[in-house]
Amino acid sequence: MATSIAAGSSNLHFKERVCRGQGCRQTSRVSGVAFQRFVHQEPSWLCGSKFLQVKRCNISCSPLNVNSKPLKTVNASCLRDGTTKYFDFAVIGSGVAGLRYALEVAKQGTVAVITKAEPHESNTNYAQGGVSAVLCPSDSVENHMRDTIVAGAYLCDDETVRVVCTEGPDRIRELIAMGASFDHGEDGNLHLAREGGHSHHRIVHAADMTGREIERALLEAVINDPNIFMFEHHFAIDLLTSQDGSDTVCHGVDTLNTETQEVVRFISKVTLLASGGAGHIYPTTTNPPVATGDGMAMAHRAQAVISNMEFVQFHPTALADEGLPITPSKTRENAFLITEAVRGDGGILYNLSMERFMPLYDEREELAPRDVVARSIDDQLKKRNEKYVLLDISHKPREKILSHFPNIAAECLQYGLDITRQPIPVVPAAHYMCGGVRAGLQGETNVRGLYVAGEVACTGLHGANRLASNSLLEALVFARRAVQTSIDHMKGSKLDRSASDWWDRPVPVSVGRDVLGKIVRRTREVRKELQSIMWEYVGIVRSTMRLNTAEQRIGELELRWEAYLFQQGWEPTMVGLEACEMRNLFCCAKLVVSSALARHESRGLHYTIDFPNVEESKRLPTIIFPCSTVNNSTWSSRQLHKQHT
User: With 50 as the cut, is the pLDDT of residue 321 above it?
Assistant: First the structure.
């Protein structure tokens, strides 16, 4: 098994840049290999001399040169034929980040929005609680910043936090101007809720379906924009990259039309990754089925820098189906979320003996940050050998419960539970990735022409634990901040008609129906096995021994699965939805495990019994650097095509 977690098909290393006037020309070492540090508009948490290296890269890497050459260019516009499409901007993902960005850049050029399923099928659509922003006179940016940094266990980037908290209110006003409808109080002002970790009421919401309302407003605007073209059921396979002197450059993306099984290539001047998270590396997650870590895995294979993947947020309160009076007839593809706002509105947590337990763990009780609440529930379940706990809001007036949580009330009532009279059975579930593709303050990555926004990105806002309702806010702010630099890059680039021929094309799977059926069944079994390993060994509470076990078992499982594929006649360039998702799940699971092994402390969402305390010397981001691959690299770790040089 190859122990490297950094992959790609050619050498990519770091170039020197200037970091907002700070002298941060640094040399760091990963497995004894020197890297020239980035110095550009990098987050301050990367401009210092220290970070936690993921020392699991046994491959040679060497520094890049500083200078780079311009792209090969010819004039081309939005050319569209059957299998190759040319756009100024390619946006991968149709959540709040992708759609908000598309609406802005469409003022300057043509935009392809590439989405894996239906346009509305995104984490945004499932976000219940709301968007946090300072909109009350008694609140302040400083208060919001402090709450964010405390929740993030002091690992947040201060500058990023200030930018997001300062610009947040304007982003909310823009949504309202676009037609998003949020709840108002009797005084006519926006109704601002409060959630765990917040010192003030600052959550703008639309009942308990805020994400759905934002998605509706943005999709309506996108559909009416003549410069934006939506490509549904197009699964992103791999980014198209080339080596240009010292730079890796992104030229677009290969996709699989999952309805026609045709490979469609998008050549673009700028690519935005807004593909969401990787919740489905775990068996129980609030994420929709599309959240298989595709963007993080693609970016990693394209040699983008990855950061803080050990910080997986488990939402403490997902609906525990087995505790409902009527058990659902079929297993859910994703857990039903019971929003943080239920606790913010006075919901109380009890064990099955109706004993309130949160005061035993934290003075903030039910309003403690999510990591604290999730660990407390986990501890109760293990000590008492029970499957779920109870969240009770029934002591509040019936009318208030039904007006604030109509979606939750309706869902529970389907299964015989009236939340105005009975407690809700809940259990923690994988919810949000605080780590991802490292981004600067304009959403830029170390890959030229590639930008990121939303959950796929690691901007430094969340640190070691995301504050409730900061995710939609971050997506809105960074989608907007990435616009101008993207437009500048677009105007300085031109599409090359010959670019589509630079890479071999992936091949739709062609192994016969019976064989394909066997492969799909085996892949689904492997997916469940990987999820089981992650829950058992890389869950809410961790240990070095368990993480090492996970690393070994995941590696062995991946090799067995790949061997099975190729024994059945699969080729390395073949693509199919289930197999490519599995490839990405393996990649993301390994990134999480390796990052967790690198952090020798307990901070925020990463809790390990071997290092139970917070260590000030370890208050550093975890960085996974890109490296060249060597022999024995796995299918999930390398791009399907050879990188163009």
Answer: yes
